[in-house]
Specification:
- There is one protein chain.
- This protein has about 350 residues and is mainly alpha-helical.
- The chain folds into 2 domains: about 5-115 and about 155-215, no CATH class; about 225-350, no CATH class.
- Helix content is about 65%, strand content about 0%.
- The chain is built from 19 helices and no strands.
- It has helices at about 5-10, 15-30, 40-60, 65-75, 80-85, 95-115, 125, 140-150, 165-190, 195-210, 215-230, 235-245, 245-260, 260-270, 275-285, 290-295, 305-320, 320-330, 335-350.
- Helix 4 crosses helix 9 (about 165-190) and helix 8 runs antiparallel to helix 11 (about 215-230).
- The longest helix has 24 residues, at about 40-60.
- The protein is globular, with a radius of gyration of 22 Å.
Amino acid sequence: MADSWPMARVMAGMSAMPVAHAIDLALFFEVDERARHDALIAETRRHIGGCIAAIETAMRVSLDHEPTVTTALKSSPEPLCWATIRAQPSLVSPALLAHMQVRAGLSLMLRQFGQRDVESAGEEDIEWLPRPDDPEAGEAMTALGLAEARWIAPGGDAQPMRPDLPAEEFAELVWTVAACLAIGASRAVGMPADGMIVAFERSGMALLADHDESVSPIIQAERLVRRMGARADAPELLGKALGGRRFLIFAALTARRLRMSVQQVVEILIAGPMPQVAALCRALGGSDADYRHLLLALRPVRPALSDPAVVAEAERYGALEEQAADMTVSALRAPAALRNKIDHLLRASAR
């Protein structure tokens, strides 16, 4: 979380955070159920609801050794937690919502780009894309493909999705689910929730102990690039990864060259300010044509990038000096908490 750009933005001052978070929640959890034609909102709801459904199922199973709690849960509707969170959206914290927005945006990028089977890749891909029989990177390539497939699979809000989340976000969802189930069970049998809290604590701790955050596509992409070794430093790979519809590999290659985390690069590309996107491209040595190519690739998650907007951004990019871009990237490497405090003080002094 210390390197999370959305976390820094959401927590950029206690005076502003509650209002901004309330607006986000109002968009994501509508009371009147009218459909919104916003792909990012729909995808974010799918990720939040899907992860919650999977955790709820796992927790109900883990509570089988508690007959009293099991009986109480059988009297409550199933699934319970997603309906509870839709009725009480403030259970979703700013940091979790920010993470899920980036995760959803990444899913839209993967779905837009599609997945190309390694076996059917063209000659231009074979030159750089690890093959399944590659002893160094083949296993990582296969794992990345499977992880990406989970995120782009179709499904509704309540369809379980593997909660391949970072440990902090997973822990928050576990305790949110536990709280929803505890309240639901206590109301079903007329027993105080405090009388069941020990059982839910034990089940929650068991789920946390078994959690594996390394199966996330983001971490799998980082692992793949690391196993590629010196081959990942070839100058032409960035263009081939983006042109070959391998957005996560592109992000992992970018992170390797700029000494940043893949998570942070993904967050900047999907949800960061455009000057930061431009700084990443310039620091990589990207030409004006490269930047236009990147902007066009980001359209699935940045609908504001219309043709006139792309032209305007490209003009600003042409005036961006490499030294200024390097300074911005260096600042982005600093802990998010430090950047957050500096931004807060700058805004306060400008009032």
